[in-house]
Amino acid sequence: MILFVAAGGLIVACGNPNRPVTLPGPDQAQVARGAVRALAALGSGAEPSPPAETCGEASAPTALTGDLNGDGTTDVVMWAVVDGRHRLVAVFARLDGEYLAVPVGELDGDGAPVGVLEIERRGTPYQLASLAVDFFFGLDTVVTRACDGTRVAWFWTGSRFEPQRLAS
To answer: How far does Cα 142 stand from its chain's mean position?
Structure first.
């Protein structure tokens, strides 16, 4: 059985990949049949798992929901162990009822800071660290916040996630 804490509740997924995974909380998203199988398709031993370092925040979320690809369905982003390494993974709810797991980034190697997982909602203003111009998130966007306050937004490009450092 896989069990870990999410924002506002628990995520439970039994060994059967056809069992639903429910994310209780304000979004009340349900990732139905195939979600666990989609995560497992990324690599050996793939399972939801929080990183060891969450900046001392006991309630730091392991998984969050949002419309990450702009198709109007609720998607999930979660920390997972894939091939023995902690990775940030998005599980997209496709319009045909199936699910697709897409790597967002790794804790080591892709510049993803170890820290807290966040979602910035569509329309929220932001600035890049390299440019003092106001932008607005076009989609619900995955953000990781390092313990030193550094934030990285993971922008969905239509085929993969691209990291960009945000201004503090």
So the answer is: 6
Domain count, the chain: 1
Structural domain for 26, as ranges: 2-166
Residue 24: CB partners within 8 Å, gap ≥ 6?
A: 6, 8, 9, 10
Q: 127: part of which helix (H) or strand (E)?
A: strand 125-128
Q: What's the pLDDT tens digit per position in 76-135? A: 888 877 777 778 889 888 888 778 888 887 765 444 446 788 999 999 999 999 998 999
pLDDT in tens, 34-88: 555 676 677 666 666 666 556 766 666 777 889 999 999 888 888 877 777 778 8
Count of C-beta atoms within a 10 Å radius of residue 108: 11
Q: What's the whole-model pTM score?
A: 0.73
| Dihedral sign, Cα of residue 144, residue 84, residue 90, residue 47 | negative
Q: At a CB cut-off of 8 Å and minimum separation 6, what does 112 contact?
A: 88, 104, 105, 106, 144, 152, 163
